[in-house]
Amino acid sequence: MIGRTLAHYRITAAIGAGGMGEVYRATDTKLGRDVAIKVLPSATASDPDRRQRFEQEARSASALNHPNILTVYDIGEVDGIVYIAMELIEGKTLRELVASGEALPTKRLLDIAVQTAEGLAKAHSAGIVHRDLKPENLMVSKDGYVKILDFGLAKLIEPVSQDASVLPTAVAPPTQPGTVMGTVGYMSPEQASGQSVDFRSDQFSLGSILYEMATGKRAFQRKTGAETLVAIIREEPEPLQQAAPKAPGPVRWIVERCLAKDPEERYASTRDLARELESVRDHLSETSASGGLEAAQPAKAPRRRWLAPAALALLLGSGLGFLLRDAVRGKPSSPVEFQRLTYQRGRIETARFAPDGQTIVYGAAWEGKPLELFSTRPESPESRSLGLPGADLLSISHQGELAVSLKRHYYLGYESSGTLARVPLSGGAPHEILENVQDADWSPDGASLAVARQAGGRSRIEYPIGKVLYASAGWVSNVRVSPDGRLIAFVEHPQRGNLVGAVKVIDTSGKLLVSGLTSTLGVRGVAWSPRGDEVWYGSFTTTSTIAATSMAGKTRIVWSSPGVGLQDIARDGRVLFFQDTTRRETVGFAPDGRTQRNLTWLNWAFPVDLSADGSTALFNEQDRLPLGIYLRNLDGSPAVRIGEGEAYGLSPDGKWALATRPPARKQLVLLPTGPGEPRAVPGGAITVQWANFFPDGKRILISGSEPERGVSLFVQDLAGGKPRAITPEGVQILFQQAVSPDGKSIAARGPDGRFAVYPAEPGEPRPVPGLGPDEIPIRWTSDGRSLFVTRLSEPPGVIDVVGVESGRRTPWRQFQPADLTGIEQVGPAVISPDEKSYVYSYRHTRDDLYLATGMK
CA–CA distance from 833 to each of 132, 630, 812, 829 (Å)? Predict the structure, then answer.
């Protein structure tokens, strides 16, 4: 035992040997978490080579952030003892799982293989080769998650890049040719012969591990280490078809390709290997479910082309299996039955089943009145108010307690937040819990809540409250906890205030399990299937659908219908959804201040800027793909389409519109408003949330995030160069013209959610007195002393002028549609630089709530 304390870690038990050192269980006394401590005793720490390799393990592993790679927290030295503090994994090594000599079940083999390949792919993309991959270095947790351990022999290599100017920032001292490093039995031929290695060496090692999992015996094992090395270099293992006759054909072909002696015959990237393993795993699952036959290996087919015919055979087997099964059983197609639940005119925010499965609670704004909560039952056409005006429903626990949002306010578009509160369904006063909450859902036992909230300029998912599992530079909605409480589904929206988003699933440790199910126009509602094996969600692309995605990432369409949005799924499978007709109207006031015209061109005109003379509006039409960018004169003449994507603003001379292409938003472009060709704006890898010109027309202000960073403000010179960060993380822009007329000041929202004036060069911000968190500045006044501000809220739309130094507030305009029924939001508004004309928009919605039986 090395002693009871080591720095601020309290050693509690010895675990065993691990790679280059001994491993102990310990408690981090600062953070209160259990960790694994690997130590290199002083007797060996004095060996420069062993110490260098030990420290290299820490550097290599800590540089990687992936759920299938062991997390390294710390490295240090106390009294001559060098140690690494790492994530503690409760489980078994793969060596322990295969120690019996029995083959693993195919499903488990593929699950371990996929996770291992994904972890390796992450390391390889970062230029790191493990070089000592073996069953002892793969830990399988009790929940089935795989962690790759011991990057102690890892070697940094130069990443492949298409840009010859991009060089690695650090390269470890290279291993001299002729030096054999690694573990005998799992080395690649090039590694065994002392040649230089790259990522394909790890593929060979993984192939050896897959072979052992499939057969229960090692691919290359001889009496001595020297004989084993010779076998790796010169001999082939017993064919899998003989050693493991029950192994599916696609698995055999992947193993054979990984074990190719020539690295050129392996996979061009480990990401491709991971994808093929994942595809086989998913297809085999389908074949098993349908009774389809195993795919046969195509005769003399090139190794690298096996997947297409194999997948086709598997899919055909799957489809025929289902058709034959249903034909034999005479299974009829079950009809879907619908029941309308609401009949008033207006909009519905959220609807949920109560614990009894019959009562339905929903938030709605009917007949032009403010939002409030109602309850209804399928057998009754009437709804009853719950007496909570201004409250929006978030979730209902199995004990009948509501989680609601109070004082809910919008930032831009759809993004909103409020104060989370608890209130019994039977009645009572709300008990406020937490501010700045975007969404929340109860755990199955009703003891805790999963929340999405704004903090430090990011949207964070916490479960329970206070434990951060995920952070987004955009915003998060539709947080839903799985029926067993172990998974959380949500929608991540990369653009602040925009409905476009991707459905994702994480576990309670924050591991991302499902990702990238992007809806190009919006995700409307998320719910778990009763068994928790699928996430259902409303997806709005070129049509509206309810889709379902399994935890393996396989998606199917459940239902398609115009305007459909998912709300909830009952334990018996009944589905609660709404169907709507929605339109965003845009109204313009000409420079004379009296003439008002409706400027809506298609169905969803979103105004973003006005020309310097106030005669022309720039707007985005967001109702169909591809998204269109338009100019329209306030005299009502026809709109002119100038490009595709999402526009942010006009140049001071009116000759260019600044835009990006969603959903990536990585490249800013200049679209000519007259004759000319589009031009790319030079810059770096920033995901743009908002951008616009400085008054001099030579620079652009960008609100966005760099990879793995929070939102900041950047200045980009149009002449070239990389964008310069001028604020810390958490500072962002949410409106059109944030730069003062002299170009020296920027009005932006800080990490605390409050607006302040930031200098255009790095410096200290000055708070704007009198501005609330629910208010949005529109632009600066022409004298640069005040801001036009508004609230994106229910009508009427009010614009005030607020002094940036004094906080003095003066009313400027008030506007509202003639018919307030179904008006969800008034704003945003755009004001011309001369303050003589303006444009505003509003959302008009008519929702009907339905109950569906038979959706599967």
Answer: 64, 20, 15, 13
